[in-house]
Design brief:
single chain, mainly beta, UDP N-Acetylglucosamine Acyltransferase, domain 1, five-stranded mixed β-sheet, 3 helices
């Protein structure tokens, strides 16, 4: 994947999130990570009171959303219309969950934007990441957002590395991406739209759009049907 393919414009349809106008002000998705909290607060302050309940200081939940008693929601956070929150969900703040998304049982979210229709339904950890429209993470798949040596994350493009300046960076996942069960997206992973990650993968590189990640070093382009 080349640098030009890693841009917000290439990865996402920004009309599919209420944060679209904010994202459009940046080039790369990881540039947004340090600002997710302030974006959520600004958006939350403008949400119509007749449509959203405000829980605590900075948690806005659309009135169509049911919050299970075993879920933990810490702000700032927004849950848009028709979001499904399942028992045991743990939301740690700086989180935007788009319309019709699913936050599953024992799923943990921290500093993330989930576009509309995203599913993180079973035992997922998603931190310091952006997931595009209708992307899906299989059961027990997760983002690893800190390198084991604690050094700053680089994104490895075909045409050179990009220094992000970030210690924490999980993944930038494009629209309509399917991540297989039990997979780990290592720090700095970028996955192009309409791509699939095989189950039990450990992804340490960037994956072009319309591709299938089979295993380390084996990525194939999808065949047209």
């Amino acid at each position: 994947m080349k640098k030009e393919q890693m841009t917000i414009k290439e990865l996402y349809d920004t009309t599919k999130t209420i944060a679209g106008k904010y994202l459009d002000g940046y080039t790369y998705p990881w540039e947004v990570f340090p600002h997710i909290g302030e974006i959520v607060k600004e958006l939350g302050s403008k949400l119509p009171e007749e449509e959203y309940n405000r829980l605590g200081e900075d948690v806005w939940v659309h009135k169509s959303v049911t919050v299970p008693p075993t879920a933990t929601l810490k702000g700032p956070a927004i849950f848009c219309q028709n979001v499904e929150i399942r028992p045991g969900a743990f939301v740690r703040g700086n989180v935007l969950v788009g319309e019709g998304a699913v936050v599953g049982n024992s799923t943990e979210l921290k500093n993330v934007i989930l576009f509309d229709g995203v599913q993180v339904p079973h035992y997922n950890y998603v931190g310091d990441s952006i997931l595009g429209y209708k992307s899906h993470m299989g059961a027990s798949s997760l983002t690893s957002n800190v390198k084991s040596d604690k050094t700053l994350v680089k994104v490895h493009g075909e045409d050179g590395d990009i220094e992000t300046g970030l210690k924490k960076f999980g993944a930038a996942i494009g629209d309509f991406v399917e991540v297989g069960c039990g997979s780990v997206l290592n720090p700095g992973t970028v996955v192009g739209s309409h791509s699939n990650i095989y189950p039990l993968s450990s992804v340490r590189e960037c994956v072009n759009k319309n591709s299938i990640y089979k295993k380390d070093g084996v990525i194939v382009e999808k065949e047209e049907r």
